[in-house]
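User: I'm putting together notes for a lab meeting next week and I want to include a structural view of one of the chains we've been expressing. I don't have a solved structure, so I'd like a prediction I can at least talk through. The sequence is below, exactly as it appears in our construct file.
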Amino acid sequence: MKKSAFESEKEEVSSILKIIMKRDFSKKGYSGLAVKNSIFSFLTSFTGKIGGLLFTIIIARILMPELFGLYSLVISTVFIFISLADLGIGSAIIKFTSKSHSKKEKSKSKGYFLYLLKLKIIVISILVFSLGILSKVLAENYYQKPIFLGLLAGIFYLIAFGFTDFMQSLFQSVNKFKYIWHKEIIIQILRLAIVPLTTVYILKNAISQEWNLFWIILALSIAYLLALLFLLFISKNKFPFMKSEVKTPSEKKKKMIKMFILPLSATILTDAFFGNIDILMLGRFVSAEYIGFYKAAFTLVLSIAPLLAFSNALYPIFTKLKGKRLEEGFKKSLRIVVPLSTALFFGILLFAPLIIQIVFGNEYSPAISLLRLFSVIMLSLPATQIYSSYFIARGKSFELMKFILTSTVLNIVLNLIAIFWLLQYGEYTAVFGVAMATIISRYFLLGLFIIKRKKVK
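Assistant: Thanks for the context. Below is the predicted structure for the 457-residue chain, given as structure tokens.
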């Protein structure tokens, strides 16, 4: 007798739970390697989010609103360059190296790795030069804030982060997700140790805010550099194809790689602007302390919401599901997330003063109203993360890029309206308007996802 969909699903869930409990990932297919990768992927994301939140809280408390605002502005600016440094190269190494590795074609794997490494070096070199040239212009002409030396230190952050990210993609391509998690643990421990200690020391001895930012960003870069050295050390024994001869990709393959990278580049860059455009625009029009208040409130929400969606764990699972099973998995994910999101929304709304006081201190009390406002995002952001994983799993990456780009343009327009209209009533009012613009654009993105899904079902 043919099993019902419910019975089949129940058996599969039971099988997966047994694998997790016994830690036996030797089985082939979805119930083996995919489960193992999903677990380590989730652990990496969870470690990064929790570590990132703790790091932000500690740094915000040490720096106080004004210097924390300048620090946030430097990081947001440098992150645009970091996103450009990827340009889909990480995804390309996962796709092409993984494929040849699975076929035991070691010489091809090494060829793809070296070719993509060459591209990465070229791209990062161009961006390092560009950031070096633009740092003074951005600091003095656009932002008009003392962040020039901080942006220069961002060059080291760009290099360390860029190559760490590249090596992480290489580990993903051969399903070594465990070491990516170990790398994330190292980064979080190091930056929680090195950066606060460095910050406390330089605040007592440094001459100016610019030099403070320089040493803080440099200390952050060291944490990523040490994580990179860890991955390089581990890679000696984990990539047997490195010892084989090189089979350079043909011109046809190189063209194929570039065609694969181009659309991903647009998606990555668009996503980077969507996540940082508010800070970049506030940096031009308001004082640094208001950026600090905005960043403190938004960071709390952004750190919690993705953990509810489990998007890093869901994506590998969604890719294994097709048809009705994918739809059922998607709906179940939403049914779990929506009640949790609603509960957190009310919790943040009611206890915002207590949260800000405990987490950041009385100096950040102006962020209370912003946190209450941003609590509305708790109702949309986890669902948006699930929709994003769903569309990628269905091969709708181009639609995803279009939606994010449209939402980014809307965000920019609304930010400009809010800033120029509300700045006359005070900087805090303008910041409040930008927060509203950010919320509207993110709900607009969720609306696009909902409408598109109804059409593709």
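A couple of points you could mention at the meeting. Residues 30-86 form the longest helix (57 residues). The chain has two domains: 29-249, 252-457.

User: Perfect, that's what I needed.
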